[in-house]
Amino acid sequence: MNDSPFDPQSAGQPPSSPPRSPASPFGGQAAPPSAASPTSAAPPSSSAVRSSAPNTPGADTPTKRLFDRISAEARRVYIGQDELLLGSLVALFSGGHLLIESVPGLGKTLLVRALGRVLGCRFGRIQFTADLMPSDITGSPIFDLKTQDFRFRPGPVFTQLLLADEINRSPAKTHAALLEIMQEYRVTVDNHTHLLERPFLVLATQNPIESEGTYNLPEAQLDRFMFKVVANYPAPQEEIDILRLHRDHVDVQAELESLRAVTSPAEILQVSAECSRVRLDDRLLDYINRIVRLTREWPQFHLGASPRAGIALLQGARTLAAFYGRDYAVPDDVVELVLPALRHRVILTAEAEVEGRRVDEVLTEMVRTVEVPRL
Known about the structure:
With 375 residues, the protein is of the alpha/beta class. It is built from 14 helices and eleven strands. The chain is 39% helix and 13% strand.
C-alpha cells in the first residue's frame, strides 16, 4: 500500500514535520518552484511556507472511529484510489459533490456500490449520452389509466449516492438540470416540488482522453462541484492485488453483497452537523481567503477562483480535521485540500498553456508564496 497522505495516523506527525505538499494529495503531481514564476511575487524559501501549527495527534473520537470503519469495510472490495475514497467521504460529510477525472476502468461504479452498502444508503448510476434529456434524470408525469390522472414518476436522480458517468457527453441543458438538483436538493416539475432524501452525493465523471462528442462543462457549472479529483492508475502492487482477485476467481458481486452497513443516513447527517462545528481560527480563515484571492491576481491564471472555493476549503478542512480526530482545523488541513478545491475553478492564460504549464503545478507554486499562520 502506498503511503497515503490521507492516513489518519499522519495526524500524529511531530510539529517539526513539514506540511504536506498541496500537490501530493488527490492525485496531483509535485512540482518544484519554477523560474517562470512572477518576480513580483517570487516564492519564498520552502521553510517560509512550512506550517507553524503543531499537527496535534488526533483523539479517538466517534467521528474518527466512524471514518476508520467506513474505510476498512469499503477496502474489503475496493483496492487503491485512496484519494478518490477520501475525497468522496469528505465531500459527503461536507454536503458537497465530487467531479472525477479519470480514464475508464478504474472502478468508479464499484466504489459507489461499495459505499452505498457500507453507508446504508441507496445508490444509482446514470450513463450520460448525447440523447439524454433532463426528464430522463429528473423524472416526469405519466398518465395513470387507473386513476385517470397524471402522477409523477421519479427519475434515477432520486437516490442518495449517484454516479453520473461521463457527464460531459450530454447537452448543456441535461447536465444543467443535474447541477441545479445538486445545489437545491429538489426537483420541480409542473410547479410541484419533490425533495431528495439526504444525504445526497453526486460523483460525476469525465473522461480526459476523448473530446469528440463531448460538451465541456462551463465554468459556472464546474464551480458547483466541491472538489475535482484526478484518479490515476493504481500503484503496481495495487494492480497486482486486483489481478490476484480475478486469478483466484473471487466473486466481486458476492463480496459486495457481504459488505455490512457500518452507519446510516441519520448518523451521516448527525456527523455532518458535528463536522460543521469544528473550530476554525480567524487566522486560518484569513489564510484561506488569501489563497483564494491570490488566484485572481496570479499572472498565469486567466480566471481565478470564486468565493465558493473558499467555502469548499473551509468546510472540507473542518471535515478532514474531524476525520483525523481533532475538533479544530490546522493549516495542513487546508493545504491538503487546495488542489481538489481549486484546480477546476481556475483557468490558465494562453501564454501559460503554450509554455506547457499545468494547473496543479502553478497552484502549488502559488500556495507556497502564502505565509502559513501560526496558530
